[in-house]
Design goal:
By secondary structure, this protein is of the alpha/beta class. It has one domain: TIM Barrel (Alpha-Beta Barrel), CATH 3.20.20. It has 12 helices and 12 strands. The protein has helices spanning 3-18, 22-25, 49-58, 74-83, 95-100, 103-112, 131-150, 172-179, 191-195, 201-207, 247-257, 271-284; strands spanning 35-37, 63-66, 87-92, 116-119, 154-158, 166-167, 170-171, 185-190, 212-217, 219-220, 237-238, 261-264. The strands form 3 sheets. It has an 8-stranded parallel sheet. Strands 6-7 form a two-stranded antiparallel ribbon. Helix 7 runs parallel beside helix 8 and helix 10 packs parallel to helix 11. The two termini are 36 Å apart.
């Protein structure tokens, strides 16, 4: 066998061992691990945490975003996750609690091995997300983000749709991005809650290419009209590729800006049927 053939075979073997051979990944848009937001299984945790983790593992999920679960110590939860080869990459935090003190959040993140903390909701009067609220959020995020950064953890804010109120030449979401310190605060895009208020997820990713770190993969039922409420019936969550959002364009932009972790979040009553459809779809998208 010639030296050239040996080199080629050696390179191929190394790629196979890494689990990312070009033979399998070539041309695929989505090549990241399959992640899941634990809220998807909110109706199952109380019926059995270990059984629910087994179900999640059976779906091919290797990354979670969640946090401590009632009914099991955080230390034991970490053991159960490790046992199944599932990594908790990000945990959620309540805005009010985090703005008062990041101590418990830091403790939970370190036990679970999470490198990210996300806040998914800024308290505000329904239908009245305004500049004053955005200014307070900026100050609270910068403060909490600094505390988390000093502990080796990164804070992300998860948009929820109501932030896209027009402001100056953009929106209040733009105001939050521009006024938070990128050293301490970055963002997690929820695809549905970006499209629902009329924004283009791909364009928004590219508008702030250095600020997006995480993503919630969700699709919106065809024909549903959105608004700035930050709410819609859970039945409007559909499997990716069956809704109205341009998922291929979104994932291509996400790959371009370097999203670190992706989490499928399906709030519909049919999540167990829809998740496999979503996974198969995102794996099928080609460049």
């Amino acid at each position: 066998m010639t030296m050239k053939k040996l080199i080629v075979l050696g390179c191929l073997a190394a790629a196979l061992l890494a689990g990312e051979s070009d033979l399998f990944a070539q041309g695929k848009v989505y090549t990241a691990p399959i992640g899941l937001q634990a809220y998807t299984f909110r109706g199952s945790w109380g019926k059995g945490i270990e059984a629910t983790l087994d179900t999640i593992k059976s779906l091919g999920v290797t990354e979670l975003e969640g946090g401590p679960i009632a009914g099991m110590t955080t230390e034991e939860l970490r053991k159960q996750l490790d046992k199944r080869g599932i990594a908790m990459r990000s945990i959620g935090a309540d805005y009010k609690k985090l703005s008062e003190s990041a101590e418990q959040t830091i403790k939970d993140a370190k036990i679970l091995g999470a490198k990210y903390v996300m806040v998914a909701w800024i308290p505000h009067e329904k239908g009245n997300f305004n500049l004053e609220t955005a200014k307070k959020a900026v100050a609270d995020f910068n403060k909490a983000g600094k505390e988390l950064k000093e502990a080796g953890i990164e804070l992300t804010y998860h948009n929820h749709g109501y932030e896209f109120v027009p402001y100056e030449d953009g929106t209040l979401f733009d105001y939050i991005v521009k006024n938070t310190n990128p050293e301490y605060v970055n963002f997690e895009m929820d695809v549905l809650w970006t499209a629902f208020p009329g924004q283009d997820p791909a364009k928004l990713l590219l508008k702030y290419p250095t600020r997006w770190k995480l993503m919630h993969l969700k699709d919106l039922k065809k024909g549903v009209k959105g608004d700035l409420s930050g709410g819609t019936p859970t039945t409007n969550d559909v499997a990716l590729g069956t809704g109205q959002i341009d998922i291929p364009a979104t994932l291509k932009a996400a790959k371009k800006v370097g999203i670190k972790h992706y989490f499928i979040e399906d709030e519909s009553p049919s999540y167990l049927k829809q998740i496999p459809v979503t996974i198969a779809y995102i794996k099928s998208i080609k460049e």
